[in-house]
What does this fold into?
Amino acid sequence: MAGPDIKVWDPLVRLFHWSLVASFAIAWLTADDWRDLHEWAGYAAGALIAFRLLWGFAGPRYARFSQFVRSPGTIARYLGSMLRGGEVRYVGHNPAGGAMIIALILCMGGTALTGWMYTRDAFWGVDWVLATHETLANTMLALVALHVLGVVVASLRHRENLARAMVVGRKRAPGIGDVA
Ligand code: HEM
Ligand code: HEM
It folds into this structure.
């Protein structure tokens, strides 16, 4: 039986999310031989990250960093309860998801920044800048894989389609024991 649902992800968070997915995919696929598109997709990703940093302070409840950035102890306890299969359901981002979001934001921001630096006279042809750019891009790929794995696990555990929630913005209302 489907319970009532509530609005969780505001339209800008959803637009941000899927635009970031698209810009990362395009930047990744064009990195080797489509430089103009690569740079534009990378700038788009950078602009999206800048917006998200502001929205984390100015956006509605579930968009705010203060709602989902948790202490290392809380994150460790949450991961422990996940391994034992008994983690509670969070309506917003869970502690592990929140940590992953910060990692994704920082890594994507760093990738865009080093990509841009490599096009400037000051850093053009500087090996460490390109090496860092590539390492961060590869790290992104690993983080995204873990992120999607986390989404799948949490969706199965709590019997809700979290990817769909990131499209429509709505989730099942908190039940007993859930963290609102
Ligand atoms: C390039 C690939 C991706 C990147 C960079 C990325 C990044 C992010 C970020 C930054 C957030 C935080 C949203 C916010 O509060 O602003 C997020 C959340 C989320 N992403 Fe992704 N994502 C990617 C791919 C995907 C894919 C393929 C799916 C679908 C399977 C997905 C499903 C979700 C869901 C469901 C959430 C909300 C998690 C929750 O319920 O706490 N993401 N993602
Ligand atoms: C944020 C998303 C981005 C991702 C995922 C990404 C990914 C990559 C990857 C994987 C490479 C290595 C390609 C190779 O091995 O030849 C690369 C190279 C490069 N990227 Fe990016 N990049 C991003 C953003 C940017 C931005 C914003 C710029 C500049 C405005 C940029 C400029 C470059 C340049 C100039 C190269 C060097 C190509 C070469 O000389 O080999 N990238 N990028």
The first strand starts at residue 5 and ends at 7.
